[in-house]
Amino acid sequence: MESTDDLYPIAVLIDELKNEEMALRLNSLRRLGTIALALGEDRTREELIPFLNESIDDEDEVLQVLAEELGNMVPYVGGAEHAFHLLPPLEQLATVEETLVRDKAVESLCKVAEELSPSSLQLHYVPLVTRLSKAEWFTSRVSACGLFAAAYEKCNPEMKAELRAGYNMLCNDETPMVRRASAQHLGAYAAKLEKNLLETDVMTMFTNLTQDDQDSVRLLAVESCSPLAKLLGKGACVSKILPIVQKFSADKSWRVRYMTAQQIYDLCEMVGRDITISEVVPSYGKLLRDNEAEVRIAAAGKVSHFCAFIGAEASLREILPSVKELAGDTSQHVRAVVAGMIMGIAPILGRNDTIDQLLPVILDLLRDEYPDVRLNIISKLEQVINVIGINLLQKNLLPAIVALAEDKHWRVRLAIMEYFPQLASILGVSNFDTVLGNLCINWLKDQVHAIRHAAATNLKKLAETFGHEWVQEFVMPALLDKVQNPHYLYRMTILEAIAAMSGTVKREVLTTVVLPEILKTSSDAVPNVRFHGCKLMKTMIPHMDKNTVENTVKPWLTDLQEDDDHDVQFFSRDALTACQ
C-alpha cells in the first residue's frame, strides 16, 4: 500500500482539475497520465473519464490541452480493449466552436482509432463518425471529415459503403466550411480506398469540389491534386488531374492561382519530362505572368526546379523570357524572389548561356534599389562564379561587388563582407589586394558597429586564407597607420583587428609589432579603450611565450588593477587568470 504522503501530490492534482484558476487546471491536465496511473485503469475508466466528459464547458486553451492529452490516454484506460472509453469526451470536444480544439480532438480521435480492434471500431467509432457527419451544427460535420480515413480500412464492406456515402454527402454539404474540410482531407481519405474506386467515387467528389463556387473550397482542392496524382498513376494523372490543374492556373480567384503556383511542380515527376514541357510549362508560364504579385512570387519560387527538370534547351525557350520580365517587375518582392532563384539556373544552362542570357540580368539585380534583391543575389554568387570562371568574375561581377561593399544599407555591406573569404580563395592574393583589400581595411571605420566588428572577424578569416606573410606585408602596416584614430570607437575596432591576427602571425611579429600596440592602451584617456585592451590581451596570451607573459604582460595587467576605472580593474584581473 502506498502511504498517505505518497498519494498527497496526486490528490492535489485531482483537486486542481476543478480549480477556478485556469493555470492550475492546465497544469493538472498536462499531468493527466500521472493522475490516471495513480488511480489505476478501473478508476480511470469509471471515474476520471466521466468526470472529464462533464468538464467540457471550459476555456478554449484548457479544452485544447484536454483534447491532446486524451489522445495519449489509451495505455491508462486498459489498452486497446478499453480505448473506446475515451471516445465520448473527444466526441464532445470535436463539436466545439474553437477550431484549434476541434483539430486537436480529431487528431486524438484518429490516434485512438488506430488502437481499436476492428470489432470495437465498428461498434463505437463508426457510429461516432456517423453522428458527427449528420449533426445539425456545421462544426461537427467539419470534424467528421478528418475521421473517415482512420476508420475505413478496419470496416466490413457494408460499413465501408456507408462511410463512402457519408463522405460524399459532406463533399456536397450546403455549408462551405464543411466542403472546405472535405477537400482538405480528400487526399488522406482517398489513400485508404480501394484502387477501383479512385477513378469513380473519388474523382467524382474531387471534380465537384474543383467546380465549387467558393474559392476557399477550390484552393483546398488544389492541395489534393498531388496526393491524388500519386494514387492514380501517370495515365489517369494526365487524363484527369492535369486538365484540372490547367484550369486552376487560369482560375478567376487569385488565391486559387496562388495555391496552384505552389503545387504545380509536384505534377512534373508524375507526368514525365515530355508532357511537362508540352502541357505543364505553358500553364506555369501563365502563372509567371499573372496579374497578381502574390501569384508571380509563388511561381517564381519554382523557377530553378522547373529548369532543372526540363533541361537547358527547354528552359531557354519556355521559361527564361518570363524570368527576364520578372527581373524588372514592378513589385520589389517579386524581384527579390527572382534574385534568390536565378542563381540556381546558372549550373543548368552552362557557361555560354549563363554569360549570354543570365549575367546581364544578374548585374541588373545587383544594382536594384531594393536591398533584399541585392542580398539574395549576394548570398548565392558562388553558383554563378563556378560556372562563368574567374576572368569574367573580375571583368563583370567585381565592379558590382565593389559598389555593394559601399552600399548605403549596412545589411548589404555586411552580407557582401561575409562573402569576401570565398572571393579571396577564388581570386588569390594579388588580385584580391588590388581590388578588394582596401575595402576590408576601410570597413574598420564604418559608422555601424556591426560592420566594424564583422570587419575585424573578416580580416582574421582572410589571414587564415592568405597566411602570415600577407598579414605582415599588407594588413599590419594599414592597421598600424590607423591605430591612433582620434575617435575611441574606431581605435577599439582597429585594436580588435590587430589582436585577431595574433593566432596567424609569427610569434616574433606578435611580440614586436602586435603586443606593443595593445600595451599602449593603458595610457589611453578613454577607460573603454583601456579595458578593451585587457580583454584583447586575454585572447593573445595563449599565443605568446612564457617569458613575454611573465616579464611584460603580467606586470602590465597588475599595474592596471590600480586604474581609477572599476571596469578596467575587473578586466585586468580577469585577463590575469589567463596568465596562470
Q: Main beta sheet: strand number and arrangement?
A: none
Strand content: under 5%
Question: Rough shape?
Answer: flat
* Mean of residue pLDDT values: 84
Straight-line N-to-C gap: 59 Å
Give the tally of β-strands.
0
Radius of gyration over C-alpha positions, nearest whole angstrom: 34 Å
**Which residues form runs of ≥5 with pLDDT under 50?**
1-9
- Oligomeric category: single chain
- Structural class designation: mainly alpha
Number of helices: 38
Query: How helical, in percent, are the residues?
Result: over 70%
Key phrases:
single chain; 580 residues; mainly alpha; 38 helices; flat; disordered N terminus
In short:
This protein is mostly helical and 580 residues long. It has helices at 4-16, 22-29, 32-39, 41-53, 60-70, 87-93, 99-115, 118-133, 138-145, 148-152, 157-171, 176-184, 186-190, 198-210, 215-223, 225-232, 234-248, 254-263, 268-271, 273-288, 293-300, 303-310, 312-327, 332-342, 346-349, 351-366, 371-378, 381-388, 390-405, 410-427, 429-442, 449-466, 468-482, 488-500, 507-519, 527-540, 546-560, 566-576.
In words, what does this structure look like?
The chain is an all-alpha fold. The protein contains 38 helices and no strands. It has helices at residues 4-16, 22-29, 32-39, 41-53, 60-70, 87-93, 99-115, 118-133, 138-145, 148-152, 157-171, 176-184, 186-190, 198-210, 215-223, 225-232, 234-248, 254-263, 268-271, 273-288, 293-300, 303-310, 312-327, 332-342, 346-349, 351-366, 371-378, 381-388, 390-405, 410-427, 429-442, 449-466, 468-482, 488-500, 507-519, 527-540, 546-560, 566-576. 75% of the residues lie in helices and 0% in strands. It is flat and about 90 Å long. Helix 16 (225-232) packs antiparallel against helix 17 and helix 37 runs antiparallel to helix 38 (566-576).
